[in-house]
Amino acid sequence: MNCRGSVMIFSIMLGVVVIILAMALAPVGKEIIGDARNVTVGDTIGMDCSNSSISNFDKAACVVTDFSLFYFFGGLIFVAGTIITGRIIFT
Q: pLDDT per position in the chain (91 positions), as tens?
């Protein structure tokens, strides 16, 4: 096998590892985001996002917290796709 084929196989393996890492961390991230958005219970401090009488700043923080899960894991999957595609096209 030549060097170009080896690099392509390595980049596909690296991309798959990043995708697996993103999928393995997704449930943990979802639980952390859920705890942050819920009401404060015991030692877990929450933002109480379901309350309609919170300030606009708190509502904005709830929205940003909600989107952060998608941005982080979507970014990881995008990086994995970029690694795979970039190595296949430019190698």
A: 567 777 788 888 988 998 999 999 999 999 989 888 888 777 777 888 888 888 899 899 999 999 998 999 999 999 988 988 887 777 6
The answer for residues whose C-beta is within 8 angstroms of residue 83's C-beta and 6 or more apart is 11, 14, 15, 18
| Cβ-proximal residues to 21 (8 Å cutoff; 6+ apart), any chain | 76
The pTM of this model reads 0.72
Q: 73 and 26 in contact (C-beta within 8 Å)?
A: yes
Burial of 37 (0-12, 13-18, 19+ CB in 10 A): middle
Cα angle 21, 19, 70; round to 5: 85
